[in-house]
Amino acid sequence: MLDHSGSPLASSLHEPVLRWYDANARVLPWREPGAGAWAVMVSEFMLQQTPVNRVLPAYRSWLERWPKPVDLAAAAPGEAVRAWDRLGYPRRALRLHAAAQAIVERHGGEVPDDHAALLALPGVGTYTAAAIASFAFGQRHAVVDTNVRRVLARALTGVAQPSISPTAADQRLATSALPADEPTAARWAVASMELGALICTARTPRCADCPIRSRCAWVRAGSPPYDGPPRRGQTYEGTDRQARGRLLAVLRAASAPVSKDMLDASWPDAVQRERALDGLVADGLVEPLARKRYRLPE
DNA sequence: CATTCGTGGAT
DNA sequence: TATCCAAGAAT
Question: Which residues does the UniProt record annotate as the domain HhH-GPD (predicted)?
């Protein structure tokens, strides 16, 4: 019998982290027992690069308006973009809408429980497919997000920060750290992620409150500082992304098609503004109409 | 493997 | 004030 529980060190983390989670997990709507796979899926899309606190209100109104995939699938994609509000990365709204349509067409309107089927949906990558399969269906998958990568980098590898971008090595490490049985693996997935979100944070980890500090390879090594290549910060002021955001904000706020003049007023640099607008149209986030008017896609 | 893609709170 | 960074995906 092959032992899938990985190294003794990894498996020694399970009990303390699971107990910590039972006592300290945040109460979040998508974790409620009756939430359902669609609720989990909506939350996962919104949480891709957006903090929990900003997601909560949008999540609630979204599910109230579109309680099932078929409801969203029947709506105009522009309505999804509008309801996305200012969560950021509005292409996620478009992809969630497209995923809802795919679920209706390919899966009878029910979120599939199969990892490969999930992965085939628009906007669902390795992380999100594993997250839905694990959180909504209790399956055993390595759910590797930025929190888990950081927890494992510190606890097992002994370094302050994980690699800048996810690697195959991260996946292997997370898989080797997975408890052998399915229900425990599913609990470990949320618990290790929550530990990264609340205790083993990027900036100032709260090691004093950490349930595995005595076993943590990084702490045992004296918490050495990060020594890898510089992590390049994201500038935002004056970027195309900011220009796109301004243009889209005008269109979200409008209930009727907007004139080009209106859009021109939202960003000073004409060259950049045109490039941003073309990009939005190419991405399907904006629909050009006759007489230089624009709206969210219908 | 590196870039692009929003937004705003925390430090 | 400037920087960091937050449950990634697509290209």
Answer: 46-198
pLDDT in tens, A14-51: 999 999 999 999 999 999 999 999 999 999 999 999 99
Kindly report, residue by residue over A197-233, the tens digit of the pLDDT.
999 999 999 999 999 999 999 999 999 999 888 777 7
Per-domain boundaries in chain A: 8-25+141-220, 36-135, 240-295
Classify residue A2 as exposed, middle or buried by CB count within 10 Å of its CB (0-12, 13-18, 19+). Answer: exposed
A32 as an active site residue: the answer is no
Quick one: which of A169, A148, A129, A162 has its CA closest to A37? Answer: A129
Q: Radius of gyration of chain A from Cα atoms?
A: 22
Give residue for tokens 């090595």.
A169
B4 C1' to A283 CA distance, Å: 12
Q: Which of A44, A79, A194, A287 is catalytic?
A: A44
